[in-house]
Amino acid sequence: MGPVNRPLDLQWLEDFLALVESGNFSRAAQARAIAQPAFSRHIRALEEWAGVELIDRARHPAAPTLAGEVFVVTARDVLLRLAQARTRAHEAQEQASRSLQFAATHGLSLAFFPRWLQRVEQQVQLGPIHMVSDSYQACEVLMLQRRVQFLLCYGHAAARTRLLPPGFEFACIGQDRLVPVSAPDAEGQPQHRIDGDASEPVPVLAYSEASGLGQIMREQLPGAFDVQRFKPVMTSHHAVLLKTLALEGRGVAWLPHSLVSDEMADGRLVGAADPEWSLPLEIRLFRATAALAPAAEAVWAEVKKAATQPPSPTRP
Known about the structure:
D-Maltodextrin-Binding Protein, domain 2; single chain; Arc Repressor Mutant, subunit A; nine-stranded mixed sheet; 3 domains
């Protein structure tokens, strides 16, 4: 008898262990609720797969051969491990149904998300939460790949996005504004002012192409990219980094007011231009329109209760 190239049926292992326990083909077949001829074929098929005789049929009661005794140990271990794996898989699936996966742009993940989450938790019992903080471009890719359930980002009526209906929808969950700020001089005036009579271009801490805020500025404030008037001294998609550099006096940065409200209140940052250089922003929560896990759907239901009606997004 030699092994053959055929798949192993786990039912054969269960039949084999039932036979070892009972020592009788008829009783084992009955315990397994299988007709005895079919049961005998299963045992023979397992022996053909193993390439050795596993049952000594000449003995009464039937008993495993020496090879069968070795095989019993492994068969029991395999079935036990598979049962445990199935249990753990069900537990993981149950946990996944309660977990939430968010992607958020850097500034919102720090300045807005914790307080917003606290409000949601007052209404909805949440499970584990996984948060990815990155540029808008990276977060958008995560949504397109369905690797997160929600994307928290800034938006504007003119903002371009690939998260379009009918595959995606969003709710407006807050308002903010993009304001140009600078570190103050000794008299409390901005070290760098946009609308002053500067003999040299104003140093600007700019957003990169991957930044959602940068995309909004390019659409709504093209004048901020006038190389005759402004000189980028640092480019990043990380608003918090630009804020740090602005505090050091390195230039003007357009930052969300929610991110710099404390610094503006205590005078560490001051406005660097008149209001026309500011931009209104929406705080948007995107999701795929396909059904989400129950916990995510509960969050969305709560979001929709408080959301304002958004304008249609703009195609890239």
